[in-house]
């Protein structure tokens, strides 16, 4: 009975995995990102942009379960234009802006989720499910979230 508590069923590969497996850590990080984006929405600034980010994240996460689930062309093209911007966290947080803080927390946690996803893509059990598509666009989504945070502070 005690051993059963140390494992959890993974629907993606249809088998039990240790509760501390990278797949479950990835899923937890995605939930954290969704929560921080939800908190950013609660600040009532650029709500449609944040909802778009949530939709992108949901689509990329769903792509792991169903490779036919992809971003619409216009969203994919706009994400490709997102470049990494330098973010001075200390300067941005001096004014105590919660919206910016939530976005930076979301992007930082998405980076952790992405690192788990990259690691999982090299795992034989997961490599058939995790392609380059969600990895590439999650990197771009991180840039999009950070750019929104930087843009908000520069306004």
What does this structure look like?
65% of the residues lie in helices and 5% in strands. The protein has 155 residues and is mostly helical. Strands 1-2 form a two-stranded antiparallel ribbon. The model has no long low-confidence stretch (mean pLDDT 88).
Number of helices: 6
Largest sheet: 2 strands, antiparallel
Report the average pLDDT across residues. Answer: 88
Gross geometry:
globular
How large, in whole angstroms, is the Cα Rg? Answer: 17 Å
Structural class: mainly alpha
Strand content: 5-15%
Q: What is the total tally of β strands?
A: 2
H/E topology pattern: EEHHHHHH
Q: Helix amount, in percent?
A: 55-70%
Distance between the termini: 57 Å
- Strands across the major sheet, in which order? 1-2
The low-pLDDT segments are none
Topology at a glance:
Elements: E1 7-10, E2 15-18, H1 22-42, H2 47-65, H3 73-80, H4 89-93, H5 98-121, H6 132-154
Antiparallel strand pairs: 1-2
Helix pairs in contact: 1-2, 1-5, 2-6, 5-6
